Amino acid sequence: MPLFNDLGITEANPSAARGYSTFGGGYGEIKGLMQASSYDGVMTFHAVSPLDAHPYGSPIEECGEAQTCTLIERASAVAPSLADLSPEAHASLLMCIAGEIEAKRESLIETACAETGLPIARITGEVTRTVVQFQLFADLVKTGRHLEVVIDKADPNYSPAPRPDIRKFNQPLGVVAIFAASNFPLAFSVAGGDSASAIASGNAVVAKAHPSHPNTCALVETAIKAALTKSNLSTDLFSIVQGTNPEITHWLASHPLISAIGFTGSETVGRILIDVAAKRERPIPVFAEMGSINPIFISDSAISERCEALAKGVVDSALLGSGQFCTKPGLIFAPDSADFYTAIKSHLASLSVAPLLNGAIFGRYNDAISRLTSIPNVEIVPGVSTDKGFGVTPTFFFTDWQTAKSHPELLDEHFGPTAVVIRASEDEYCEIAKGLDGQLTSTIHATESDSFVELIKILAGKSGRVLWNGFPTGVAVTAAMNHGGPWPASSSHTTSVGIDAIYRFMRPVAYQGFLDSALPTPLKDSNPWGVPQEIN
Amino acid sequence: MPLFNDLGITEANPSAARGYSTFGGGYGEIKGLMQASSYDGVMTFHAVSPLDAHPYGSPIEECGEAQTCTLIERASAVAPSLADLSPEAHASLLMCIAGEIEAKRESLIETACAETGLPIARITGEVTRTVVQFQLFADLVKTGRHLEVVIDKADPNYSPAPRPDIRKFNQPLGVVAIFAASNFPLAFSVAGGDSASAIASGNAVVAKAHPSHPNTCALVETAIKAALTKSNLSTDLFSIVQGTNPEITHWLASHPLISAIGFTGSETVGRILIDVAAKRERPIPVFAEMGSINPIFISDSAISERCEALAKGVVDSALLGSGQFCTKPGLIFAPDSADFYTAIKSHLASLSVAPLLNGAIFGRYNDAISRLTSIPNVEIVPGVSTDKGFGVTPTFFFTDWQTAKSHPELLDEHFGPTAVVIRASEDEYCEIAKGLDGQLTSTIHATESDSFVELIKILAGKSGRVLWNGFPTGVAVTAAMNHGGPWPASSSHTTSVGIDAIYRFMRPVAYQGFLDSALPTPLKDSNPWGVPQEIN
To answer: Domains (ranges, CATH) in chain A?
Structure first.
């Protein structure tokens, strides 16, 4: 999923992430429209409507370095007030944030639709998901279970040595920097899963707004600040940083008071962030969720049993959100079946998609389609073009495994409404799977007569989530969800979706030999908050 | 805790970690004795006895690049056999390893004492701890609790969207590279906490033996391979790599089949490993446990109440293991008390310590003492010298906070039997604590009349473990232990001691929409292994 790539940072030119000097090179890509301009010495930029590629809304001020640092310092100064909340008060805050976002539903839908070009139904669902995420974390936080209290009472007979009284629980880190994704203007933006889990674990947050939907971000910031005020907490606990200047990324990631980074975006920018974080005087963890091709493997018997439904499912999943989901299935391995191809073509011809999110994604999509189109032995299947704004032509490619192997670009992630369908034999699936990079998801479509024991095992070793007879788009926000996976799917062993995302932004602290009166509340024998205590 | 620093890699010369070309510069530091030599084209090195600085044992072959890669590839090929074990079979393996190490107790004690110069009682305790670590992991693994199974059954009414059946559990990573520490020749060496937790989580392990105790490492390898054979598993699941060539670190850390790194050593080498890991085509996590100064803050009332006991406790803790523990208290903040200083001097004069572990540590210790000795306004208090081999003079330094602030080297970690006692007022403790780096431990010595609410909070924010009226050396291997902390104490939010260390080397994998028959055993409704399943 591109993020700062939207701003013209490419693998070939990672230094474009630094310095205003790259303005020309970097920003030119965005059709010249999101380019920052200056009046009265204040740098500003505009949102751009993907529907007509014209500016949307009022000019937005670029956040400078001093202002970014001030926001971080203020957040750090008040962070302990969040860390000290009782589970009940903390859960109330999360419910209050959910309520404030819900209260802005209408204006959020209007603004986000205008800035992203995504349909109302999609944005409506995203508002709900964003609200539900805070509610789910409130449910968890209220129990205190996430504190993972363990109490080992003193034991003079313990082996290998007598044991003093030791107790530990999870504590927040301080201030977390969150980088909003372009493709989920609410559910993975400044109040998305990353921010919600960071706040739920008791951290202050400074979030980089995505310049593709800055007005939506500003509305969300207002909602969260209102909830903080209603909860008698400082509004400095949550702030957003607006801007198109890639240097902002460095100001945030390298600030000594930032304790961890949550990021959803491209592998290129993920690597830049990891690099910046590792070069700090005190390196910090980066929880980056990045690229994935999300392969689907279809069995012979599945094609025979439900060719039409599979074709429809594959096309719908690849075109959902105009193909701008991190879980978009980009590679479909299937037996040679004329019926399957015909059904794909036919369904593709019946659908149109919303324009892409911004000019950079638009430009890269068209470049990729043009490059793939020039590869020999590839059948190009265009869908219904959308001409307005950043509208594109959804495009499927049909080829065989031999061709795909010799043209690895066919196997790369291409953001947007495209997928590559590769003719291959079931016998080859295990070898193909062994060659895959890390994935957020891998999918098998089969029937009860199939087993694929070996293939399942290989895919599980490569993926964060393995699906059977499903489609990877549509990530359930639930306890058993895992949204992550080996590199480049993510940079850690954690999930960024579901309640376990909360554990990214806490760390255990052990207390040894303390009097009960001096212990933090969750560790006291009297357990005034009634949190679960594992006592040994 | 130095590791490869022992091989002459310094912050000023990190490139010394690369290439045989650095042989002269790097290896000369180790008194010329551990230097690799070549006969018949085979590079070899010797262990060195710290007791007389002379070679110990037979020449040991340096592991070359091809051999290192072969060990990793073989481990990768058989890793699934470990991952597939039932909890019961897996626990039996761990108990069998414990048994084989126990069976070698006598030869391990003899060899480790000769190679490290550490006293028999210490090594005896380490054998026990090493055995107990495997037993504790066996107890955990047998329950299946570490798999953290979560089952979300399909729910058509789930909000924000209908939920498919999703189930997840923790799976091993594949092959983990472990770097043994010099200062715990058993409990944090090739079968120490890192290897034990990696094997307990179902990973194959390739461990870099520390050249300070290569014969001990070889004995341990034999024990583990014997246990694998008795358990009908391939001996390729665990191997060690011997050598003094810093390039070995790179071969291991950059090999594409290595999935994670466990490391205990210096911040310098920790940074090198993190850098190598981040620059891989597929970056991997590095769980590095590095430096810590382990400050102790003593209250006025504590000094008044138990001056003698505190002085004895501080000196004993700083000199334990000849001051070569990662939890050694290096900075003691105390009120100005002539009695306290007198008691420290008197106790220091009554103790002698074993020689340091190797020539590099010996050289750096003497350099550090000589540099600190030249700082004005510092009282130097030497203890009892040990002249033989790598023997040194334990040395305490007394100074005031003003002097320490203007000479930051006084506040650095110095490996070996030394500590700096700093006169400061209780009122200054919070400000002093705020300026600290991340710590494995921080300690307060006080009485019931003290509260130190603010100081405890600041120290908890900087440390992995906070102690009240205790001493940080002697890390209990127990559920509530946390051995880690903000950088440079560690590079992650995990513990390297205690059963929670197991979670470093696993990652969750979710299975969506699977038929029960195709699910991995721990996720099946029938739950044949009887593992704990959280069912929603």
So the answer is: 65-290+492-505 (3.40.605.10), 296-468 (3.40.309.10)
